[in-house]
Amino acid sequence: MMETARVDATHRSARAWAVALLALLALLAMLAMVSATVGCSDTPSPPIPPARVEQSDRPASQAPRSPAETPSATPVQAWRTVRSAAGTFSVRWVAAPDPIPVSDPFELDVQLFVDPECTIPLTGRSLSVDAQMPHHGHGMNVRPSVTEITPGRYRVAGMLCHMPGRWEFLFDVTAGGLLERAQTTVELK
Amino acid sequence: MEALVLFAAVALGVQTPGPACGLLSGLLSGSSQAPSVDTCKVFGTFERQFDLLESPTSVAVAASGDWAVLERDRRRIRVLAPDGTVRRVIGEPDDSQLPSGTVWDLAVDPDASGPTAITFGPDQRLTILSPSRVALFDLGPTASGVPWRIVSGLDLGEPVAAAWKGGDPQTTADDELWIADRRGSVIVLDGEIALKRRLDLASGFRFLRPSGVAIAPDGSVFVADEDANAIIRLDGAGREVARFGERGSFPGLFNAPRGLAIAGQCLYVTDELNHRITVHDFDGTFRSFWGMHAVVPREGEGKIHYPASIAIAPDGMSAYVAEPLERRVQRFGPSDAEAAMNSAMPSREGVLSHFGHAIACDGELLLLEEPETSSVFLFDLRDPTPMHVTTFGGSGEGPDRYSRVRALHVNAATQMAVVADSGKGRLAHLRIARDRTKPLKIDPFMVTLVRSWELGAWSDRVRGLLPTAGQGTLEPCGFAMHGGSLWTLDSRLGVLVSLDETLAPTKAIATGLAGASGLTARAGGGFATTLPDQGEVVLLTGDGSIAKRIGGRGSAFIRPTAVASMPDGTLLVTDGAADRVVVLGADGTVKGSMGSRGASDGLFWMPDGIAPYSGASVPPEQGDVLVGSEGPRCVVVDRGNHRAQVFRQDGTWIMTFGLGRAYTRPRERGET
Q1: Taking the CB of residue B338, how many other CB atoms lie within 10 A of it?
Q2: Are the beta carbons of B450 and A170 separated by less than 8 Å?
Q3: More confident residue, A47 or B87
């Protein structure tokens, strides 16, 4: 009995340590997310699990990988926010994998909001996404596809930045024949 | 006879590759005729050049071998023998001394714009098209000079090319006249010149800007769509059966395809902004091309510059290519296809300042459009000479890419720009992130897109304010700040529109000035614009009503295309056909002009856009012929010379510049 009790106590102690460790990790993760979400004060939604891109002409090793599969990926995805040039909407986005790989496909999880704090979803719009390298005078060699997952939230598949350097990510939101753009700079190494 | 031929040739400015007399005599004595075309030929051998033609936009060849050219800016058609002998002039008499008795009246053309296209019919009568009229002339030796038939009251839009389909010369029952209407439709008339069909949006066709048409031997019809950079093949019933082409400079791609011609089983396309003629199978397969881009203005003799129209002689031994910007027609003979392509790679040197019509200047910012690449150049004017600091746009699919930029606006205080792109049907608002406290440098990130309207949706908004604005997409052709608001004028219907900060229409006024080009706010209030086809400058009041029309036929203007208002109320008007800038007083009185035709500094070759110049002054320097920049200045797009020039308002030349070059001392004559 005594021995059993000692074992249970040891187990309880180990579990307590494990729970404490997990809680600490979760806290760190939340802090990282909050710090990455510039301008948006709310808690971001969990990222959409990335879908595999059907590209029969690419080897399987070049298909987009989830953050867990990416050796160099940080454990916590970094949400980023950019306000449109006209100040009429906000884009909150995260890449998968993150950091964005060079010359490998990746996806974006994009959410549109009306306000700078990202509390009021912007719905009923169409979204197109592109990336350009103005220094080099070119964009991507692929055309990404955009799918609305839920109102105001989109999965952008088939992104591929084929060289390192300064890229400009362009989020074009259209309604009623009027397109407005949010643009942000991404440095790829 | 030889003397007469040579006289006519000299009058036309004919250039021959060899001794003129010998060649003309040889042609007169009857050159050998080759068999009909049955394979694809490449016409890469330069034969001769016909100069001093005033905007030759359309060329056609008759079965007899005689050919005709439409000089649009002079409202006349010349009919010539293959050797260049002028047989007839239909329309305005020639300025040069042609033999008497050759001039025919155009027979009271009701269209202010005059003829816009020509073609030969199955019966070999010359068909002359205007926006509302078709006239057929018999050119036979006994012809009286009276049109064989005239049909007026038609609605042909802007007919820029036409081709007859039909076979039996004895009857018109099966004949059809296919017409490319640049306003977005293909029109089919029957043999009696009555409307048979109109292929447009309403009938399920989406043509952006049809600019060429040709009929294949099997009865199928090819249409060149300039803005779509595509050739559309229609069957005899007018159904689309194939489409090929996309924008690019690589052989086989197009950059503004315009004129079409067919010989044998091959299609020939004038690829205007690629400066070449491309040859295709009827299924669209690229076969070959010829034509080297002329780098130095006026350079011809085989080099091609902005080809607009092509016609191939029935014997298949020569092709006539009309180049309106160079005011000439070149004739080419057959050549080896591979050799033609190998000799046709364009030089990149000296071809970077293809400034187009659109220009805007405010404070230290200057925008100039470049049609070849569909780009816009931003110049910083803080230094005495303009410094190119960024390029934005370019061809492509995105909303920040352009096709055919029609008008520009820039506001130095708010550092914003507006681009009206008629080709893609967009109205874009851009931000210029320029920090004048920092040193000048090239910055490819300087200009970013804020918003962009689809002009179709924008036009619907205008119709919400002005229900009489009609159907279709409006085309902003100029911008002006007036009363604290930005205004634009539509060239399609002449609707004057005020815009809010999002470029949404807030007020719309019908002016009736369809075909307008350019807009400026007059210093004393109101606006001014031009009507190129009518040869008029129009002054409007602040409420959009017409205050005064200046010009018209026989006046100081031939083809005014842009107007700028100077601080003292003076209006400066570019006249591309007259190669000058006309100076008007604030009340519209003609005060004088600046410039004339030429390549030296201070002279023009088809000047186009104009704007008040607000850059830094040029400091006086010892030895300068012309120094200082006191008083108001203007900047003029000298389109045909691939440059821009800055003048004082009194006409004194100050500076010539392009991309990466500028000088304030005049160069030797002929240098550009």
Answers
A1: 11
A2: no
A3: B87
